[in-house]
Structures are given as C-alpha cells and as structure tokens.
Amino acid sequence: MAKLSTVLRNEKRRKLVVKFKAKRAALMAVINDASAADEDRAEARTKLERLFPQIRARAQQAARHRHARRDPRPRQGELVTGGAP
Q1: Phi and psi of 84, rounded to 5°?
Q2: What average pLDDT does the segment 63-69 reach?
Q3: How confident is the model over 25-61, as pLDDT tens digits?
Q4: What is the rounded average pLDDT for all residues in the chain?
Q5: Distance between CA atoms of 13 and 11, rounded to whole angstroms?
Q6: Which among 65, 30, 27, 76 has a CA at the least distance from the CA of 47?
Q7: Residue 85 has what DSSP assignment?
Q8: Rounded to whole angstroms, what are the CA distances from 41 to 23, 36, 50, 51, 83?
C-alpha cells in the first residue's frame, strides 16, 4: 500500500491537470500553429513553461546533483584519465 502522502500528491497532480487542461491546449495550439508569428509562438512556449515551474526546477535540481549518486561513468565535460601515460 502506498503512503498517504504519495496518494495525496498524485491526487493533487490530477487536479492540476484538469485545472490547466484548457489553458495548456490553447498554448499548444499556438505553439503548433505554423502560420502564427514567431514572437507569439515563443511567448506561448514561455507561458507553457511557467505553468509548472516546480517540475522544471525539480528536473534541473536532479541534473545538477547527478554527481551525488555513485555512478562510475564520467559526467559531460569531465576528463577521463587512467592508465599509464
């Protein structure tokens, strides 16, 4: 059985999806409209990104702290050294 906090969090997400469904659909229509001006499409993209900033922040935080896990693979931009010169 799932923890009560997990169940409540999922219910909150479902309510948010219903609440913003129409707004998200309108923004997606503008984004996918090839005849719309580039400025309007860019503005619609930023508005869509602002709908759920906590999700974006959480994903960015996970990417920032990826090194904290015990992963033997080198991170992007990290020099791989080893063996004899």
Answers
A1: -80, 150
A2: 62
A3: 999 999 999 999 999 999 999 998 888 766 666 666 6
A4: 79
A5: 5
A6: 27
A7: -
A8: 15, 7, 14, 16, 51
pLDDT at 43: 94
- Asked if 84 contacts 64 with a C-beta cutoff of 8 angstroms, the reply is no
Cβ neighbours around 20 below 10 Å, total: 14
The structure tokens listed for 60 are: 């960015």
Residue 18 tokens, joined: 């219903």
Helix boundaries (H) for the chain: 4-32, 38-51, 53-64
Burial of 27 (0-12, 13-18, 19+ CB in 10 A): buried
Which residues, 6+ apart, have CB-to-CB distance to 56 below 8 Å?
49
